[in-house]
Amino acid sequence: MDVPLTVADYELAAAERLPPGVWDYIRGGSGEEQTLSANRDAFARHVLRPRFLVDVSEPDLSTVLLGAPLRAPIGVAPVAYHQLAHPEGEVATARAAGEAGQLLVVSVFASRTLEEIAAAAPGPLWLQLYWFRRREVVIGLVRRAEAAGYRALVLTVDTPRVGRRLRDVRRGFAVPPGIVAANLDAAVMARAHEAVDGESALVRHSREQFDPSLGPADLAWLCAQTDLPVLVKGVLTGADAELAMAHGAAGVVVSNHGGRQLDGAVASVDALAEVAAAVGGRGPVLVDGGIRTGTDVLRAVALGASAVLVGRPALWGLAVDGEPGARAVLDILAAELEDAMVLSGRPRLSDVDSSLLATRPG
Ligand SMILES: Cc1cc2nc3c(=O)[nH]c(=O)nc-3n(C[C@H](O)[C@H](O)[C@H](O)COP(=O)(O)O)c2cc1C
């Protein structure tokens, strides 16, 4: 292929490079993959209404997120095991995101240590957590994140157990030997990498280790354990946004986990306006799921997002060309967003609101 020009070009190039089991693990959704498709289809229904005769000579994409200045309202979503895509893993992603002036949310299933990632990162880092049954594991990670300079925690609430991802079940997928969850001890990770036919090791592991009783009081407890802001990821309704904010959350991430949890769940971009209204400016509202172009970012901001996160695209960039590949993907999104702001007559993020959008039925 010629030089990749779009995020979609990186996807095609990554598909050629990654082993089939890893490709399926990254690309797949749960069940019939309805939500996976919906995340993309929903964007096309929000058509853009550009304005002209506006001075767009100095477009400004910059923003501040929980005190951290960013060059664009874009970041990398928490995605497990970046070493599946490139041997440098999250260290390469951290350099790429920081150099691009964007955010990296590190997964609790990162394949490099929190400290290695922090030492390499020129930009802001947040740490994502799951609610492990062993609470001391959660608190141990919080303390390490604080010490290493992470600026926020992201508690993922949409995963009381891992969804039924049939591609992984059919392959009996397990993370390949040599790639580990570098921040979790052997007790938490016991049997996590044991491949068994007709079973996803990840599903079995989540049933053993994730605590499905997570409730609002637990969120309040976690917020009380740390001075770091805690965002709640996986919010798809105004009611859950309200609950999260009322129990100490500093903000929310509108997400259906990239279509990997409840199949049939609403596309995240379709849940965004309701959630943003419920949060009502009390904290940042991020969104992820199917964001692949600058005009997708523009639409998300118009629907109330403070910033967007991309999951799979970061791994595609890493798979194609390590750190420069991940950087290129993030730079493409920012450059496309700038084009879209100029061409729609919205030179600043504060100019981007719902007046930019009309809904195409269907
Ligand atoms: C391979 C893969 C691993 C993921 N791992 C995690 C994780 O460890 N924690 C988490 O909160 N979300 C995880 N997610 C979900 C992402 O944070 C994000 O919600 C999703 O990828 C966004 O959709 P997109 O990939 O279409 O951009 C993962 C997604 C993928 C594709």
Automatic annotation (TrEMBL):
InterPro entries: Aldolase_TIM, Alpha-hydoxy_acid_DH_FMN, FMN-dep_DH, FMN_HAD, FMN_hydac_DH_AS
Catalytic-site annotation from UniProt: H257 (proton acceptor)
GO molecular function terms listed in the Swiss-Prot or TrEMBL record: FMN binding; oxidoreductase activity, acting on CH-OH group of donors
Residue span, FMN hydroxy acid dehydrogenase domain: 1-362
Superkingdom classification of source: Bacteria
Residue numbers binding FMN: 78-80, 107, 128, 130, 156, 233, 255, 288-292, 311-312
Keyword set, alphabetical order: Flavoprotein, FMN, Oxidoreductase
Binding-site residues for glyoxylate, renumbered to this chain: Y25, R165, H257, R260
Coiled coil: none
Names of required cofactors: FMN
Homology family: Belongs to the FMN-dependent alpha-hydroxy acid dehydrogenase family.
Protein name: Alpha-hydroxy-acid oxidizing enzyme
Source organism of this protein record: Phytohabitans flavus
